[in-house]
Structure to design on (244 residues):
């Protein structure tokens, strides 16, 4: 168990917490003393996460929730206010890859599904949780995005468009927070050994990729009170920040 308690007595909400990056990020935050609000659709995965968090001496509140349900997100914000009166950190990690396809071949239904999870849900999270982040002495919001937002890579148009939207929304929100105690940034995890990566690049040797637990500390570093970065991208590949 880590002796680093830079998140002691802080409340951190993580979406997509039942597997992959969200799962191991939640464990890392719990090791550092945070209480975790773990949000995901998969109840079994959340229960396994809770066991892991308890094993490292941490605590969690499990929230089985489809983040595409905006009304439920609003209710979650109210529940957090009633219990804690604040939120110290938001890690918006949940996302869909969608179909890797030529843009004209993508169905409107697929576009809607991916935008609902990757963009609209994150807007709804900000709308619901902004007052709680402002109530913290150092509210931190981090949105897990991708370099696909910038590359315009063929066949990645749908996923890239949603991440470009997330980047633009985060940049605007960060600017709006300049005179507050809230900071907002974006995290690029790069290629990681996850189910989404396996779907995106079938046949790739997963053993050549970093495990999510290896990148989790860098992501959690972004929500500690001492991190004063705002309106930035942290790219794991360069291990550095740059402006959104």
């Amino acid at each position: 168990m880590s002796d680093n308690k830079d998140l002691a007595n802080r409340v951190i909400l993580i979406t997509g917490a039942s597997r992959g990056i969200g799962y191991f990020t939640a464990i890392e935050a719990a090791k550092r003393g945070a209480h975790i609000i773990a949000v995901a659709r998969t109840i079994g995965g959340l229960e396994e996460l809770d066991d892991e968090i308890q094993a490292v001496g941490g605590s969690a509140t499990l929230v089985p929730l489809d983040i595409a349900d905006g009304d439920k997100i609003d209710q979650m914000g109210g529940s957090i206010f009633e219990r804690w009166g604040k939120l110290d950190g938001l890690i918006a990690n949940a996302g869909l890859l969608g179909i890797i396809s030529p843009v004209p071949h993508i169905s409107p239904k697929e576009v809607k599904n991916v935008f609902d999870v990757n963009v609209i849900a994150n807007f709804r999270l900000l709308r619901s949780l902004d007052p709680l982040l402002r109530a913290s002495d150092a509210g931190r919001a981090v949105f897990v995005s991708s370099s696909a937002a910038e590359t315009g890579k063929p066949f990645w148009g749908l996923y890239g468009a949603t991440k470009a939207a997330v980047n633009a929304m985060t940049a605007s929100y960060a600017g709006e927070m300049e005179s507050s105690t809230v900071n907002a940034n974006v995290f690029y995890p790069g290629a990681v050994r996850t189910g989404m990566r396996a779907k995106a690049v079938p046949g790739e040797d997963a053993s050549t990729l970093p495990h999510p637990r290896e990148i989790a500390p860098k992501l959690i570093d972004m929500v500690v009170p001492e991190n004063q970065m705002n309106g930035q991208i942290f790219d794991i590949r360069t291990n550095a920040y740059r402006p959104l």
Notes: The longest helix spans residues 108-135.
